[in-house]
Amino acid sequence: ITDNLPRPTWSVMIPTYNCAGYLGETLSSVLDQAPRGADEMQIEVVDDGSTDDPEAVVRAIAGDRVVFHRQPQNVGHILNFATCLSRARGRYVHLLHGDDRVEPGFYAAMQKGFESSPEIGAAFCRHRYIDGDGRELSVPDAEQPRAGPLTGGVERLAEEQRIMTPSITVRRDVYEELGGFDPRLVCSEDWEMWVRIAARCPVWYEPKVLAGYRMHENSNTGRHYRFAQELGYTR
Predict the structure, then answer these.
(1) Which of 89, 94, 176, 193 has the smallest C-beta neighbourhood within 10 Å, fewest atoms?
(2) Angle, alpha carbons 215-108-141 (nearest 5°)
């Protein structure tokens, strides 16, 4: 992660690949609760060689408030995540897929978690699953009734995937210590990362529903599910 540069409180890093149709909603959900200045919240879209012109969406929605960075060629989502992390300058890093969204109060709630104790390495909230039109599909049960460090964090997170990427934020120096997402993993690189973090430090949980994870046929989850079907695998 970049060194020797000014440190905003937040880095909101938005990886994209052919999801321009959703990107406006994603950006608006961040900008509606973002400080005006990049000295407090860095916001960047990091595009992996899309063909649907995400830069036009960025300029229409955010002008020059949001930085747009394009990969010189398609590198795949895990290496695109690595670019996001290498460009992040903030004390707290939020990796927000370009087709997902956050809801009002997300960043304030996550920051409250980090500021509760210097030991907190990541903070996440309850999320909702949404469809391609933004309609709610389901909401998982709360992990615990009140905000605070997740009880039995590493054991519970290792048991099953409980965290969707838009719902979690990570302290910058934790990513620096642990490194990035494992490129050997095809569709569980996020789960492995959250477990790795929880094994290193306490993780804060907010039971309010403050993030939306979009399920559609071109999302990573949708593509992996279709691929499994084509191979004859079943869930």
Answers:
(1) 176
(2) 45
Q: List Cα–Cα distances, 50 to 18, 123, 190, 208, in angstroms.
A: 5, 30, 22, 33
- Beta carbons within 10 angstroms of residue 14's beta carbon: 28
Distance from C-alpha of 233 to C-alpha of 82, rounded to nearest angstrom: 30
Q: What is the pTM of this model?
A: 0.90
CA nearest neighbour of 160 among 129, 126, 195: 195
Strand pairing category for 92-95 and 10-16? parallel
Contacts of 233 (CB under 8 A, 6+ apart): none
Q: For 90-148, how does the pLDDT look when each residue is reduced to its tens digit (9 = 90+)?
A: 999 999 999 999 999 999 999 999 999 999 999 999 999 999 999 999 999 999 999 99
Return d(Cα 120, Cα 159) in angstroms, integer: 21
Which pLDDT tens digit goes with each residue over 18-28? 999 999 999 99
Structure-block tokens of residue 184: 């050997």
b/e burial code for range 106-132 (CB count within 10 A of at least 16 → b) = bbebbbebbeeeeebbbbbbbbbbbee
Statement: residue 49 has pLDDT above 70: yes
Could you give the CA distance from residue 166 to residue 229 in angstroms, rounded to a whole number?
26
d(CA 23, CA 100): 8
